[in-house]
Design a protein that fits this description.
The chain is an alpha+beta fold. It has one domain: Arc Repressor Mutant, subunit A. The protein is about 45% helix and about 20% strand. It is built from 3 helices and 3 strands. The chain is globular. About 25% of the residues are buried.
Length: about 80
């Protein structure tokens, strides 16, 4: 699948769970992958791979805005 990289050090929980919890607690907002990474304290590479997997499984919605991908919770 993907390798768990956590260079920010503060987060010892599963990054996928933290990302989903963050997006679900902010349903009305949309975030870039970088913004999600900063908010859940997981490095960008790990966040990118997890978000890509969540997009591919239709768990979250992603829209392209220029070169940026903006994501939000599906429900």
């Amino acid at each position: 699948m993907y390798i768990y990289h956590n260079t920010m050090g503060k987060n010892h929980k599963r990054p996928r769970d933290e990302i989903l919890k963050f997006l679900l607690s902010n349903k009305e907002s949309a975030f870039t992958i970088r913004a999600v990474a900063k908010n859940v304290a997981v490095d960008y590479k790990t966040t990118y791979h997890i978000m890509k997997d969540l997009i591919d499984t239709n768990t979250i919605i992603a829209k392209r805005a220029g070169q940026t991908i903006v994501c939000s919770a599906l429900y």
